[in-house]
## 1
Amino acid sequence: MTLRIATWNINSVRLRIDQVARFVAERAPDVLLLQEIKCTTDQFPRAAFEAMGLPHMRVAGQKGWHGVAIASRLPIDDNTTLEVCKLGHARCVSAKVAGVDIQNFYIPAGGDLPDRALNPKFDHKMDFYERLTAEIAQRDKAAPLVLAGDFNIAPGENDVWNHRYMSKVVSHTPIEVETLNRLQEAGGFADVLRDRFPEPQKLASWWSYRAQDFRKSNRGLRLDHIWTSPGLSSAVVKDTARIHDDVREWERPSDHAPVTVDLDV
């Protein structure tokens, strides 16, 4: 069976429910991971997802900000969510679908100053990664695990529009890149997008709203990721990982584009 997993920072699910419905109809994800749903759990538009053919849901909402959700065509089994946010924000939700453990994250952005002592938001981001890395290090790498979502770090030189400039900006500073690399190494994760599109090909999944034409300005960052554990990486269907950057052109889009991959489970 092929399982198509999509991750998308939707930047308000109620505001963009029509875009979600179009994406589901056109790209047919079996499991849709959303970040920044920006609603409480009881406000999540469940009926709309049922109408899309994604009736199985796990939602962790929060008033005004953050919030994550998983909607699935297939039944969902409960599993352990990796709760590593020291502030208790709704930043992770999990599900087990077709035997695959799926952990959906909206990791803190970290503010503007890459200094843990001077910027509590950046300290929160680093603490989140440290806790998550410690949890992952204790897990069985042979177990089928997907770690996905908006990680708010663009790791490589070709995951940002300008490496030299962005190395001083939160999302691509050396300490963040090193932190993300430690998490990846702790779980032995495969980065399905970069595996399909090796360096030096440029990749981006986020573009600022400040530019009227995001393609013309072309100042993108690859902040959205799908990683597979060693026990699952062999199930990645060749040449299926992709960024749906055309979705960024739709009316009233999120500033993030969806990312998908197919797994043979």
## 2
Amino acid sequence: MKLLFRGRSQSRRFLVLFLLAIILITVNLLSSRVQEGRAFISLLLTPLQWFVDVPSRVAGEVSDLVVDRRLLIKENAMLKTENLQLAHQVQQIDSLTEENSQLRRLLEGRKRVRHEVELVELIGVNPDPFQHQVIINRGTENKVFIGQPVLDAGGVMGQVTEMSHYTSRVLLITDARHALPVEVNRNGFRSIALGKGQVDELELEHVPDTADIRVGDLIVTSGLAGRFPRGYPVARVSDVVRDPGQPFARVRIKPTALLDKSRHLLLVKMPRQLRQINAEVAEVTP
């Protein structure tokens, strides 16, 4: 530009530029060829513009992908957390529902008990497979006594054998050391239900081969020996085997109580005279 306008005045320079601009504007407006040429040049430059714009578009897409991936990872982690929380809540609801169902059954069973009872909770189980014992959350501070009957919604579970200040140990009726005077509810036939060390089975002792006892008969406490009040469900007859060569039939019975499942139990508060009998029996029993 300095070489073009060297030696000329400023006014002549301005005038030349002004006239040139007017001419170019007029030609651009009036000449269709110029417009066609511009369109052709624009068409030729389109691939170059697209190529120049590629890095920018790729960078934008990559940025969107990275952002979307981070959002997806974050949302996935949040959904996993929510899923675990919901699963935990469902488990709690299932547990509470089952516990509520057990308490309802226990309340229905309580209506059948003629004596005053106290609701207790099972807090421990003897790990020895040869000793069927559980621990409840009541002791001498709660006036628990040796021989006190323990029930669940289904029937007799066992009796208290040991106590501390705030807990007691209960011997279950299925323990091999336990014997319980019982009778057949249908006809009053008396026998002894012996524990066999199996949680789902007991056996009646010395049942004559001619005794009127059938599968399905309800076995209840007879009240003899004073340990358990009369008439509480104990088991149902599950099998009767009569051998012609033997004087006694083999009678298997299945406990009505859920010995390995019940968590809430009932302590039977027996009259004072039965307590005294229990204490005397406890002194005599080795």
## 3
Amino acid sequence: MTGLFLSQLTLSHFRSHRRSLMDCDARPVALHGPNGAGKTNILEAISLFSPGRGLRRSSAQDMTRRPEALGWKVTGILHVRQQIHEVEIWSEGGAARQTRIDGKLAAQNALGRIARVLWLIPAMDRLWIEGAEGRRRFLDRMTLSFLPDHADHALRYEKAMRERNRLLKDMVREPSWYLALESAMAEAGAAINANRQNALRAIAEAQTQAETAFPTATLDLQSEMPQTAEGLRQALADNRMRDLAAGRTLIGPHRADLDGVYAAKGVPARDCSTGEQKALLVSLILANARALTADFGAPPLLLLDEVAAHLDAARRAALYDEITALGAQAWMTGTGVELFTDLGNRAQVLEVTESEGVSAVGTPE
């Protein structure tokens, strides 16, 4: 089995990078440099090689370099199993980003059919103690990694729900106005729920089949919605009066939550220590990567922002061992090169510096 990796990455007027060119091989990439140098900006650029809004969920306008505001472009040479693709992603004048694959314009969701990208960033450290929205987003990112069409179901559901919510806020009571919208929500909502359940089963299987230094998390989807499209359609109809009073839809996959438990201790993830919560997150990302390797035929690109600084030396070494055993090209950031010592020659090291608001990438001397 051959892998998935970027052999070249170019950032043009992207965030703090006026122009940065990185030539790589399939090994993990360790990016080190001081805070604010532009390391995370590189990971954000790579995250755009997957469907969705990227690891910061920023608009295309926010990604452009200031003060020039000329628009930006990210280009990558992507090796996928036995194929090579040139991917270009860009935005002009703050407009929505566009994608070209092998010289042809493509929908953003088409990226999910040629590549898989997973990430873990410091903002996700609060996953277990923040609101349900963050956990749904985390679950949907995992689901999307297995099923690229999951995004299409989510878009259809959200569009129909927005229109239904508008009717609710306007206190429209005529049932005929709701029928088509609720049917669309029911079909898409049932597909979203089924996709999420399939992803959780894949993660659970990947966790039980691997020996790892990281604790296993038992995951469960908490949802009061019916499982079938017909059941959800009927529930939406039955709940109209309650939804009218609330001015919004109160049942459906947008109300689900992800419950996590530290399996070995039987302790809810939200009650674990900060270190344990971080270890559980790393465990889930690794399980997701293992499951994808079996499903997609190649390990995904891993984006691990400041992950080394939040692990003790033993777990840091264990993480590096698991990444290299998986064969994944993991792009990792850290403030000091010493954080990556345990990788040795198993990784390529790039230094990221910043001067007068311009980031630069080079090989340490």
